[in-house]
Structures are given as structure tokens and as C-alpha cells.
């Protein structure tokens, strides 16, 4: 029980230390402690690739605010879309009502995504998009009167979100959710893909996965995987043949395939969708993070006609999910504007240029004594160190160096906005090189 202090009206003046003090004492941040929080930096504004702190530093954003900002902050076209929609209506319930921004977004997504994904379910965040995908898969088999197929097969080192069903398919050990294990769905885990992207394909890489399909297919509703890049579960980039084999195994054993493209979707890996590297289409795809160009929270789960029709003909007569803010018009309007910018097709050149620059600037760090591995694909650059970073120290150092890079564990990685230019990439890479030589930044 909390100790009840009398309610006070908050008169937050603009005093920065006061704001930060209140933040430290009362505001949870992602994966932080309330008793021993890491410092937060107060943001004043952001434009283009820059985040400006209230303390005056102007930082080049190497994180795209967790994969989401594609075209930069404070983009006139995105701002306009948001303002225009807010002057019509900011929200209406999606039960019984519909609107142009949601329908336009659905049209765009059906046209862009790998073929066959024709039905669109809009939701609020990536984790919810994953929950929706898993529910679709389980309801699909239930509608076919198959009550046995209700487990999910996945691979280790995955990350699919922080809600309960999503946690149950994250890596069981390094997936950050081990303590919840007793109450999670008991799902099945194959070893993580071993053959790196660009390496010679190892035929036996899928052997254990194939064995699990063979042994358990009668109880597996769906197989879920992050195509080509395993994000928050280790920033691992694997061979397209692995993904191709996953599709073949799902077909062979009558298991639905869910592609979680929440981090990889919309150009980040050099293809519009990472599934395209293996030339496959999943039965269900999850999109999030990048969907609104980093403006608002919005996610989508798309599925095939077969999945949607089977669910709809089943005992329940409908799909059993419906969030309050489903299809939020502001989020849909800004998503449409962001996709319009993307479809002008500058992203292909932008991402190719970023990849070339990151390869040139980061791959030489492989020989650094502190570095275990360096990986680059599309607009993603990963430097894996041999020992974990000291978060508070390295974060402070990066800010001093004029960049916003937020590592986790042994992973110092960047996925900058697509508009980042060569000089800015040089500054991001130089900052990484500098911290590698700073003992205080590592445990
Ligand atoms: C970030 C992420 C999620 C979760 O999305 P949230 O919006 O944080 O709920 C799920 N899957 C993948 C692959 C992600 O990168």
C-alpha cells in the first residue's frame, strides 16, 4: 500500500531540474528502476535527424526513436496531415463507424505487403499486433474444429513485445521476461538461426527446427519469427534460406506462419519487407514501430483471406478482439502521409547509401580489441562488444559526443532515420569508435 500524501496541484514551472526531479521520483521509463533510475535527458524539440535537449545539446538521433522515425522529426508533410485530420475529427469509435483515413491505410498496406495479405486489423502498439496475430492463429484452428493446435512455435533470441502472449514467444532466457515464466503460455522454442546473412548457407541450420515441426505439428497453431533481423533479442541478422525453409515447413506441416515485421518492415533492411529477402509471404504479418513514421502509436496485423474467412465462419462468427482506439484517425492520417513519402521511393537509395556508409565506417571496427562482431544490413548497424556496456556512463559519453545512441547489454547499434546524411553517419560512427576506447563505458 502506498503512503497517502495529500493531493497537491502540480505547478510545474519550466525549471528543468524540477521537471527532471519529478520525472525521477514519479515517472516510470522503459525497463528502469524507481529506486535507482538511470538519468533521463530532457528533450526540448526535435527536427530532421536532431533531438535538442533543454540543456542545449543538439544530438544526431541514431535510434530513430526505436526504429520508428523514418523521414525525420517535425516533418512538414506529416505535421500537416495530423493537423488537417484533427480539424475534422481526432477519434471516433471503430465499432459500427468507419472513416477514410483507416480505409486508405488498409488499401495501402494490402497493396504494399507480400502477396495474399488482404485483411487488415488495426491496433495500438506492436505488442498488441502480436497478441492479435496469435489470437487469429488460435481462433483459426478452433474454427476448423481442431482444438489440439493451440501452441506457438518460435526460435530463440526472438523479441515480440512485452504483453503476456507476446512475452511467451520472446527468448525464454534473454527475452527479459524470465520471471513471468510460471504464468506464461507454454510454447515451443527451436534454436536461433545460426547462418549469418551473407555467410555460406549451412544446410543443417534448420535441422532442429524441422525436427520440432515433425514432432509437434499436431499441436502447433502457428510459427512466429522476425524475418532476417532478430531485433531486441540480440540484433542478429540471419540467412534468407532459413526464412525460406520456415515457410516450406509451415506449408508441409499445416502450420500458420506469422512474420513479425514490426522492426524490419517499411524499408529498414533494404527491402520494403524483410520477407522479400526470402521471397516468401506469411499467412499473418505484424507491423508497428515505423507505421506512422514515428509520430504516433499504431500497429497493424494483416492476414490472408483464408485466415480471415475461416475465423469468420467459425463458431464465434467473428474475430474476438476490438480495442477502444482501433483505427485512430489521427494515427491513420499520419501513417498515410508517411507511406506517401515512402512510396515516392527515395527510401531505396537512402537505405542503400546508409548501408554502404555503415559498412565502410563500422566493419573496420571488427578488429578492435573490445569488439566481438560487427553486423550491417540496410539502415541497421550493430557493434557487439565482448563485455556489457555501462549504461549511465556510455549514455553520458554519447550525449557529450553529440549523438543519441542507446545500447543494451553488449549491443551498440544504430538504425538512423532514412534522411541521415553521410556527414551525420560519420559522426555517429566516430562516436561509437570513441566510446570503444573508453574503459569507463564498459563493465
Ligand atoms: C518493438 C517490437 C515489438 C513490440 O512493439 P511495441 O510497440 O513496443 O509494443 C514486437 N515485435 C518486434 C519485432 C519489435 O521490434
Automatic annotation (TrEMBL):
Family annotation (InterPro entries): Aminotrans_3, Aminotrans_3_PPA_site, BioA, PyrdxlP-dep_Trfase, PyrdxlP-dep_Trfase_major, PyrdxlP-dep_Trfase_small
GO BP term, pick one: biotin biosynthetic process
Record's keyword terms, sorted: Aminotransferase, Biotin biosynthesis, Cytoplasm, Pyridoxal phosphate, S-adenosyl-L-methionine, Transferase
Location of the protein in the cell: Cytoplasm
The organism's place on the tree of life at top rank: Bacteria
Pathway note: Cofactor biosynthesis; biotin biosynthesis; 7,8-diaminononanoate from 8-amino-7-oxononanoate (SAM route): step 1/1
EC number(s) on file: 2.6.1.62
PROSITE patterns: AA_TRANSFER_CLASS_3
List of residues that carry N6-(pyridoxal phosphate)lysine: 289
Catalytic function, reaction form: (8S)-8-amino-7-oxononanoate + S-adenosyl-L-methionine = S-adenosyl-4-methylsulfanyl-2-oxobutanoate + (7R,8S)-7,8-diammoniononanoate
Single Gene Ontology MF annotation: adenosylmethionine-8-amino-7-oxononanoate transaminase activity
Positions bearing the site annotation: Participates in the substrate recognition with KAPA and in a stacking interaction with the adenine ring of SAM: 31
Cofactor: pyridoxal 5'-phosphate
CDD domains: OAT_like
Amino-acid positions noted as binding pyridoxal 5'-phosphate in the UniProt annotation, renumbered to this chain: 126-127, 260, 323-324
One term under GO cellular component: cytoplasm
Family from the record: Belongs to the class-III pyridoxal-phosphate-dependent aminotransferase family. BioA subfamily.
Subunit composition and interactions: Homodimer.
Entry function: Catalyzes the transfer of the alpha-amino group from S-adenosyl-L-methionine (SAM) to 7-keto-8-aminopelargonic acid (KAPA) to form 7,8-diaminopelargonic acid (DAPA). It is the only aminotransferase known to utilize SAM as an amino donor.
PANTHER family: ADENOSYLMETHIONINE-8-AMINO-7-OXONONANOATE AMINOTRANSFERASE (PTHR42684:SF17)
Protein's recorded name: Adenosylmethionine-8-amino-7-oxononanoate aminotransferase
